[in-house]
Design brief:
The structure is a single chain. This protein is an alpha+beta fold. It starts with 7 loop residues before the first strand and ends with a helix.
Length: about 170
């Protein structure tokens, strides 16, 4: 199901709650852990995502743990037996998620030093960016969990929002 636990350990994270940390130096392109969970329909996925998002807005709990695997199904990784759900978002990640025949793997995109927190960009769409503030603290942080190809649009949206606030004062 997952690669050997010797590659990571769960610990308290400065980013948010708990996180996974490298237990040894990892090389670029190394498969670290499989993101596992319950395979569900898209309809069920939308229902669960909406419910979890509403809950997280009230409690500051982790948000949504759903990965798209194909047009009809997703993986809900919000299960105890999925330690990969603890990997936090970063705007300057050291890992990425890749889909291989419907299985989601977390792999390093650069060398990772022992003790370094594992992270990847969750890649949320711009549409509801305000629901997903970012806490990564990286120098490249854009303030919200949005996929990099939409960062330019995010910056424009934030400027418009800021302009509207100034104008209404």
């Amino acid at each position: 199901m997952t690669t050997p636990k010797v590659l990571w350990i769960a610990c308290e994270s400065e980013i948010h709650g708990s996180g996974l940390f490298a237990t040894k130096d990892l090389k670029k392109g190394q498969r670290i852990i499989e993101y596992v969970g319950e395979k569900i329909s898209k309809e069920e996925s939308y229902r669960r995502a909406d419910k979890q998002l509403k809950k997280s807005n009230k409690s500051d709990d982790g948000a949504v743990y759903i990965f798209e695997i194909d047009e009809d199904h997703d993986i809900d990784g919000n299960v105890e037996w999925n330690p990969a759900r603890l990997i936090n978002h970063s705007c300057d990640p050291n890992c990425e998620a890749s889909d291989e025949d419907g299985r989601i793997w977390i792999e390093s995109v650069r060398k990772i030093k022992k003790g370094e927190e594992l992270s990847y960009n969750y890649g949320y769409d711009l549409e509801h960016f305000e629901d997903h503030p970012c806490r990564c603290g990286s120098r490249n942080c854009v303030g919200y969990i949005v996929k990099p190809e939409e960062w330019k649009q995010l910056k424009k949206a934030l400027k418009r929002k800021s302009f509207k606030k100034k104008k209404s004062k």
